[in-house]
Amino acid sequence: MLQQVEGSKAVAVAVAACRPQVVCAYPISPQTHIVEELSRMVKAGELTGCEYVNVESEFAAMSGAIGASAVGARSYTATASQGLLYMVEAVYNASGMELPIVMTVANRAIGAPINIWNDHGDAMSQRDSGWLQLYATSNQEAADLHVQAFRIAEELSVPVMVCMDGFVLTHATEQVDIPEQAQVDAFLPPFVPQQVLDPDNPVSIGAMVGPEAFTEVRYLAHHRQLDALKTIPRVAAEFAAVFGRDSGGLVRPYRLDGAETVVIALGSVFGTLQDVVDHERDAGVSVGLLGITSFRPFPYDAVREALAGAKRVVVLERALAVGVGGIVATDVRSALVGAEIDQRTVIAGLGGRPITVPSLRGMVTSAVAGELEPLTFLDLDAVVVERELARVDGSAR
């Protein structure tokens, strides 16, 4: 059903349609509206068969989800930024115990300095935690990805993060085709856990593992991620068959036909880049766009195939590996080993700084002209940086 709705509410309604049995909630901006709406739905009797658990911290939220999932309940939570960092120990436990928890990460910068606005530093910090990470380009995709996430998580018995840009998507009101309950029921079967704590059939989950078996445990976790590379596109295709629209998958190509320059990006900036690509194509510039939906597992083969005709690639990132540069760029570089494709990295939008159409057009122009540095900070205030560097250098003397 088409509705003009805030992104957070669209996600909450989509999650509710998946019939979660336990929702563990602790508020932190910008995800709070999601769990608030789920709370309202439970209280109003619109979401039945669900235990809504108010907890005292983000760590408790993930711990509660772990306990619920371990006894066979479909479990959900949401967080952002420092909240994700606070639950990190339990985040690793959830994946190590192979529990199919779904969590929304409303992407927000990590302090210090304190910043409540959007970038991808929070989720990117957990890229090796064993969770699948799916990035939404729009509120429509955010809602759709949650329905697919429960299916993927439960088929593979792995936890899944659905990442959506804080405020840019969570607090934006736009038209969304809300998944209908009948459609979700047809797409998402009742949860049948692959492992469960049952007094009548006792087993250990998350027990101590010594050196003699730990490598094998990690190998199996890696293998499940590789299995997801087949599961994610299959589930996306089945979703399209039921709901009548494409959403999810591994990558999202846009106007790659004949594109010599390709921009790669994750999240909501994809929409702005589509406008930039359209403008440049109309002006005769052979530029295209590749969105990464599945960041973990990273779709190396799909990226390599999509970029086969490119001469140069610009990876636009909303996170920074301090002292290194790009995070996504490292995976893209691995995907392109042996290919004669020039690669540049652009760091943009950190801490919620707007990524504007003029800046993106300038980036494309510089890339096509071969004038883009290997690592560029888009719209960096050079005057402020140089003044601070001069002050630090002066103090050092």
Task: Give an account of the 3D structure.
The chain is an alpha/beta fold and about 400 residues long. It has helices at about 5-15, 30-45, 60-70, 80-85, 90-95, 120-125, 140-155, 180-185, 210-245, 270-280, 300-305, 330-335, 355-370, 380-395; strands at about 1-5, 20-25, 50-55, 75-80, 100-105, 130-135, 160-165, 175, 250-255, 260-265, 285-290, 295, 310-315, 340-345, 375. The strands form three sheets. It has a seven-stranded mixed sheet with strand order 3-2-4-5-7-6-12, with helices on both faces. Strands 9-11-10-13-14-15 form a six-stranded mixed sheet, with helices on both faces. Helix 7 (about 140-155) links the parallel strand 6 and strand 7 (about 160-165). The longest helix has about 35 residues, at about 210-245. The radius of gyration is 21 Å and the shape is globular.
Labels describing this entry:
single chain, 397 residues, alpha/beta, seven-stranded mixed beta sheet, six-stranded mixed beta sheet, 18% strand, globular
Please give the share of residues in helix.
40-55%
Order of helices and strands: EHEHEHEHHEHEHEEHHEEHEEHEHEHEH
Instruction: Give the terminus-to-terminus CA distance.
Output: 66 Å
What fraction of residues sit in β-strands?
A: 15-25%
Mean pLDDT: 97
Radius of gyration: 21 Å
Query: Can you summarize the main beta sheet?
Result: 7 strands, mixed
* Apparent shape: globular
| Strand adjacency order, main sheet | 3-2-4-5-7-6-12
The assigned structural class equals: alpha/beta
Beta strand count: 15
Helix count, DSSP H or I runs of 4 or more residues: 14
Query: Uncertain spans, ≥5 residues at pLDDT below 50?
Result: none
